[in-house]
Amino acid sequence: MTDLKAEPLKAELLEVALEAAARAGSFLRDGRPADLGVAATKTSAVDVVTEMDIASEKLITGFLAERRPNDGVLGEEGASTTGSSGVTWVIDPIDGTVNYLYGRPDWSVSIAARLGDETLVGVVAAPLRGETYRAVLGEGAYVNDRPARVRVAPPFEQALVGTGFGYLAARRARQADVVRELVPHVRDIRRCGSAAIDLCDVALGRLDAYYERGLNPWDLAAGDLIAREAGALTGGRPGEVPSGELTIAAAPGLFEQLQTRLEELGAWHD
Ligand code: IPD
Ligand code: CA
Fold this sequence. Notes:
By secondary structure, this protein is of the alpha+beta class. It is about 35% helix and about 25% strand.
């Protein structure tokens, strides 16, 4: 029987993911129109799509179709095919679209390769940071070619915690309530605007922890693997894996405390 998780498969998926992310990252960095505008809105008037989100997804799916024609794809801008190989690519062509629209640097291209429910490979390219983060299941996480490692967990009150907000007003109001309860009890809060980068920042020790409600699979698939391979624990509500309900990533020791606190605060519901 073919071992679908065999090393040559993982190595090939990594190489393809790195190349796809590099191509899309260069295209987005070098091709951003000075007068970039909003092409469409999604869940609310502030949930925007630019022509570059759509073009980036086309570039990535076109490249994957050439290199891995039998794989499935799931992309934020609508790409959705099943494939026959068992591998599915989960793609965010620009994570941090609002930052990209405003010319802010924290946006990324996030590409993960999944086999069933398991993510085998994750790549997050952040061109304006000059960094690409990557991980292969069981093989560690890297920033460019340096190993990535989480920071040793500080006491809860010294934790630097990243988070984010959804696009719907009612959800944001709840998320603000949760932050209001947390902020007096931690070092500080950060909101960078790209969930994929937040997860990688935990992997790199640039954040002690990150949590957010309302993420989609393409926001978190690659970053979750990168955080775990760098030594973080990730999850959702107690006993759950990261999901749209709640995603948490932090170093062991801090993770459990944050998960308990978020459960008490009801961070998993609107
Ligand atoms: C968003 C970003 C943001 C997070 C939102 C996501 P998008 O993705 O990751 O940081 O707070 O929940 O929807 O819309 O820029 O691809
Ligand atoms: Ca996204």
